[in-house]
Specification:
Elements: H1 2-17, H2 20-24, E1 27-32, E2 45-47, E3 50-51, E4 54-58, E5 62-67, E6 75-76, E7 87-94, E8 112-116, H3 118-121, E9 135-136, E10 148-151, E11 156-161, E12 170-175, H4 184-206, E13 215-218, E14 225-227, E15 230-231, E16 234-237, E17 242-247, E18 258-259, H5 262-270, H6 279-282, E19 292-294, E20 304-305, E21 320-325, E22 329-335, E23 339-348
């Protein structure tokens, strides 16, 4: 009994001698997208934001980023530096041999292929953020994402973002003293408030009927909410009229709008994200400065593509493109970036 008591005393003394920071270190959790689907929100709505989008911890604490219903990476970019681009041009790997269904060479032959920016999309910088270097969880490409726990040893405010979705952010506020940290109860209240706000916003965005005039919106998005749908999904115009396909003012996504035989578009969609980005998705079907005209026969099979549309300030891609319809008929289209569930139809009378 005496030996047992001595051992307990020694253990207790050892615990008391531990450094205060180690004894008190805590971890808070942030999910990518809400943990559960937002109630009453249509399935085409994706919320890839951080939940919560603000967290307060003490120096030495950690934040554990876990998968939710959204997806994407987590990255810290030092002040004064830009978020790395998702894709990079490779001048030493030009596009070659691209032909349309009629056998004609495509205008983008000779341009650099775009490749995923693997250094920026891979785990980088370790698991400690001090504000001095780029640190990233990396983007899971070969299976479900895994939790990523990162420690903050210095007080300050750190804005984390995503290379894959650079428009979304989460603020990590690191306090010098633990008594200045928000309680778990306060954190739950903040998260519940954010979830209610996101649910209300998602329902409002999903109920949108579409812009006025001959405009179709590719996704009706805001903040961290993206929708894999066109607004409106169906539109009727007269022969000779043009339709403008436009991104939301603020979107975390990229889209394209492609017309043509479904099996032809499917092949492009299947190979969009690979060792190189599929040029038949990335680039518009006609050379820049040339009108996009849909007549059911262009390029040998009626293929018309806006190319990638994007709203991010650093992106080289446009926010909108216009297609003119010169013959009556029904023209089906979809986004080859996200697959044929994001589809629409233009009827020309």
């Amino acid at each position: 009994m005496r030996n047992h008591r001595s051992l307990l005393v020694a253990l207790a003394a050892g615990v008391l001698l531990l450094p205060a920071a180690a004894a008190q270190a805590d971890t808070k959790q942030v999910s990518i997208g809400p943990k559960k689907p937002l109630k009453g929100v249509p399935p085409q709505v994706l919320n890839a934001d951080f939940f919560p989008d603000r967290v307060t911890i003490a120096k030495g604490d950690s934040v554990n980023f876990v998968p939710g219903t959204g997806f994407g990476d987590v990255a810290f970019v030092p002040k004064g530096e830009d978020v790395p681009p998702f894709a990079l041009p490779m001048p030493d790997q030009p596009i070659a041999g691209a032909k349309d269904a009629a056998g004609a060479d495509m205008w983008f032959n000779g341009l650099p292929n775009l490749v995923p920016n693997m250094p920026a999309l891979s785990p980088s910088g370790g698991k400690v953020i001090t504000g001095s270097k780029f640190v990233s969880s990396g983007l899971a490409m070969d299976g479900p994402p895994k939790p990523w726990k990162v420690r903050f040893p210095k007080a300050g405010r750190y804005e984390l973002t995503s290379v894959f979705h650079p428009s979304k952010t989460v603020d990590v506020v690191v306090k010098k003293r633990r008594k200045a940290v928000t309680s778990r109860r306060q954190d739950r209240r903040y998260l519940a408030k954010q979830t209610r706000k996101a649910t209300k916003q998602a329902k409002r965005l999903a109920a949108f009927d579409g812009p006025a005039g001959n405009v179709v919106r590719a996704g009706n998005d805001a903040g961290g909410i993206a929708q894999f749908a066109f607004f409106p999904a169906k539109k009727t115009v007269a022969v000779g009229e043009a339709v403008t396909f436009a991104m939301s003012k603020s979107s975390i996504e990229i889209h394209n709008v492609a017309f043509g035989p479904k099996d032809y578009l499917d092949e492009h969609a299947k190979t969009f994200l690979g060792p190189v980005l599929q040029p038949f998705v990335v680039h518009r079907s006609q050379a820049p400065g040339t009108a996009l005209v849909a007549d059911g026969a262009v390029h040998g099979n009626g293929w018309v593509n806006t190319g990638v549309l994007d709203t991010h300030a650093a992106s080289p891609f446009p926010k909108r493109e216009t297609v003119t319809f010169t013959k009556p008929g029904t023209y089906e289209y979809y986004c080859a970036v996200h697959g044929n569930d994001m589809a629409g139809e233009i009827t020309v009378q």
